[in-house]
Design a protein that fits this description.
There is one protein chain. By secondary structure, the chain is of the alpha+beta class. It contains 3 helices and 4 strands. Strands 3-2-1-4 form a 4-stranded mixed beta sheet. β1 and β2 form a beta hairpin. The chain is globular, with a radius of gyration of 14 Å. The chain starts with a helix and ends in a 5-residue tail after the last helix. Pfam families: Ribosomal_L18p.
Length: 119
Amino acid sequence: MAYSKRVQFLKRRLRVRNKLRAVNEGRMRLSVHRSNKNLHVQLIDDVNGHTVAAASTLEKDLGVVGKNSVEAAQKIGAAIAERAKKAGVEEAYFDRGGFLYHGRVKAVADAAREAGLKI
């Protein structure tokens, strides 16, 4: 039986998140959501159920030109790492959700690592 693309995405998202929860070690989760137009990144404390920091291409002060580009993803990754450091978070685990680890999703992770967030 062939699953639809949406069902495949949801199954992949749950599989990734469950594996990450198994090796959590009390770290926060850096969650990425990629839509056709924008990119959203959140640093989530799963123990308390709170969002500690967030960054998005919808924010005007980040100066993102092409909202749907790798360059925009790099700016978002650097911004979330900076906001995480302000919140006192040094390391997190990367939750790509159901998205494949390439393109914009990979650019966010690489930029966050370069900015000093340990993923």
